[in-house]
């Protein structure tokens, strides 16, 4: 006892009332690593795979730098083996009744429950994240995800009748991520019957553990396969035949931007700093730590940003005294940064917060929407009306009112703009891994020969091509832009020939400048159209349908000139009219509310317009395809720039005459001309917010490549024909899904 | 007691501006219990600190001199001496912050403490405790009598009729509840009260004390209360002048935990003196 008394630090602690270390034992994580002799391979088809002669990368404790294990780096042949395993598993897995898949996912949830300590200590040990965050939030949410998706699998046959699993999914994880991000993606994929190959960053361990837990369930070992490897290997995974879809995500945890109204700036900053000062930074495996370390790279990034911000005139507040040479970086609040300085424009790294003042809510909305990012945002206000106004106006995937960062498996989470266009959670998350009824699996159509620099660059010159034999009255000449027919910028025309090869007439040859003008016109029309009620939109679509009905004889004769049989021509016009009416009716009732566990109050699942949507029509069904694509786009509140059929644009121009009188100017803009050239202009346009492409396989490849510039969502069919006259192809659920994006709006209640 | 709160002009705009984000408060309340654990020696030292905040209370209709005397003795010697010695804390004068009794028992408590030559203050609940629904005249008279009997601190039940109709009262210390309600000290309510204290401090520079009462029975609870104060108001509030815990059963659980920390064994019921 005497010895204890002399050593007791109780008096000192009693005086200072400091917090002490609360270490969480990670013995089980180390024991798990020992089962692999501290050398981790890949987990493929229910077995550890440790191929010979592979580079290995050390996995280190981000705080102590202590080596934990070495990870073998996969090569292309390992990717092939993993994809083969996933393909083999796909047959039995996707063929199961949903109820059986549900059972299996529930077993996996229980497996995670049984080994949760191992899971949370390993995750915290390797990533440096605070253990209580992993333990109290991530692990329970991972189980909820599995349970939610088990239920979805159980009811799949009735709820998602006709939809087919895509097949093998490749998932590419970023250098820093939480295992939860992997769960958000694999759960829906597995639930609907896909199998997954995960490419984890070089030294990450939790994905391997999860794969092992799934593999040890015995049945269906190949549904989840995990490889560790360099980012460059992603190309091999994407190019691997049999991989139907590649999902990827960027670094998950960034810094934050805070917009504070001037009138409460001082008060808000004071409270923020007071609260930040109480945050505890330390080893993630400490139970009383708020923030861990994220390794040297993240720290350097933060440090560099801080230094640059200081040099650009910013004020920096840092909480706590974190020693300079420690692996930690303190929570940092940056303010007074001039809005035009480079740092104010750049992405804010973790764990920094950039605060800037605003005057009015309108200004705040403009600033918030004025960035290329659009993941999530929270609005803090006690004025319900204003909070909702901002919530609806923010161009992001998720908005929380007076809360932040809540997640639930039933609520879709995604983004817009450069934060991507895929969804996790809810029904939207399931559709990501499903093929619509009646569409064949995607064929590999990647061509090495396509020259991205020259595709669609030049426009063939058009010369006088003989006497015009078109009908009279001839449709007005020009591009339909901003509500009227205008001469093309290039002042040249292209000849259109009928089925016999006779010159039918000339249409305007649109070019880059015309696309620019058309996109501007569409942007101008957007606020007005978005503001219309679904009922008003429906009324306009019905008015257009009525006008088309009157024009039926003229349209049918145009189609006949292009080789369509009289009966079929008449049917095409009639069906087009029906499509307009049908989408008008569907414009109503898009959104619904969800109930979730973590929140008292509803979560609204809103369906919002994409914005300015570019549509490149196919050659076939020149009228029906044009209308079938246009109608859902308009019904969902988009404004559009359409490139009609290249060979037969005249029916579309006929319809434009009615649109000139019945629709607001700029709502629909039709640009005729060389499809490849116009596709190039649209795909490379940063302010086009989505692109639907129904041309050639090459064009699809180009559209997807070029659209990566602003990560606009692209719907390209790879040259596959679509059955426009069928309900599934011409008015199916895929159109509805593609025509709008989802936003989740969290509305907490409280008295 | 800390210097009296000199008060301030009543500015109702402060009150009308107060907004409580209830879901956020509930989340914060949940977090604070999970995020701030103290272990080993820290836990022992924190528990001893908690002892010094306790208003060791008996508010029973059948209180008599004998159990008041036992309570006062326990207040003076809250933790077994050998346990304190093991922690090198035997010479720190650890006692509870006060003993808290009904007005009619103040005399007994003062006498018992005198006999034990102990200078712990006697606190008395007064003013028609626990409902406070008596006339102002008798309420004031009750306070006067308790003070005459030697009470150093008075826990006043405010007239909630006045509060609910927007007529406010000021104080040196605010208490979550009487301890006799169906729901007493809860973390969400405490967070709101602590932030009001902080706001008042930021506006006027005056520190108002805080006393949760009722339902705080376990050592673990008391640690959570300490970290709540530390997080929301800071270390300066972690002293008996500004923070009290109204409790009766809490002390024995703390003593049990200290016993376990020192000996490595869980105590039997008879190992520790009752209070």
From TrEMBL, chain A:
Residue ranges occupied by any Aldehyde dehydrogenase domain in the UniProt entry: 48-252, 257-435, 497-719
Coiled-coil boundaries: none
Gene3D superfamilies cross-referenced by the UniProt entry: Aldehyde Dehydrogenase, Chain A, domain 1, Aldehyde Dehydrogenase, Chain A, domain 2
Any GO molecular function: oxidoreductase activity, acting on the aldehyde or oxo group of donors, NAD or NADP as acceptor
Highest taxon of the lineage: Eukaryota
Membrane-spanning intervals of the chain: none
Subunit structure: Interacts with SPG21.
Family of the protein in this entry: Belongs to the aldehyde dehydrogenase family.
Protein name (record): Aldehyde dehydrogenase family 16 member A1
Source species: Pipistrellus kuhlii
Automatic annotation (TrEMBL), chain B:
Associated pathway: Carbohydrate degradation; 2-deoxy-D-ribose 1-phosphate degradation; D-glyceraldehyde 3-phosphate and acetaldehyde from 2-deoxy-alpha-D-ribose 1-phosphate: step 2/2
A single cellular component GO annotation: cytoplasm
Superkingdom classification of source: Eukaryota
GO biological process: carbohydrate catabolic process; deoxyribonucleotide catabolic process; deoxyribose phosphate catabolic process
InterPro entries with a match to the protein in the record: Aldolase_TIM, DeoC, DeoC/FbaB/LacD_aldolase
Keywords: Lyase, Schiff base
Coiled coil start-end: none
Catalytic activity from the UniProt record: 2-deoxy-D-ribose 5-phosphate = D-glyceraldehyde 3-phosphate + acetaldehyde
A GO MF term: deoxyribose-phosphate aldolase activity
Residues at the catalytic site: 175, 211
EC number: 4.1.2.4
Entry annotated with the keyword Lyase: yes
Root EC class: lyase
Protein family membership: Belongs to the DeoC/FbaB aldolase family. DeoC type 2 subfamily.
Name of the featured protein: deoxyribose-phosphate aldolase
Species name: Pipistrellus kuhlii
Record lineage: Eukaryota, Metazoa, Chordata, Craniata, Vertebrata
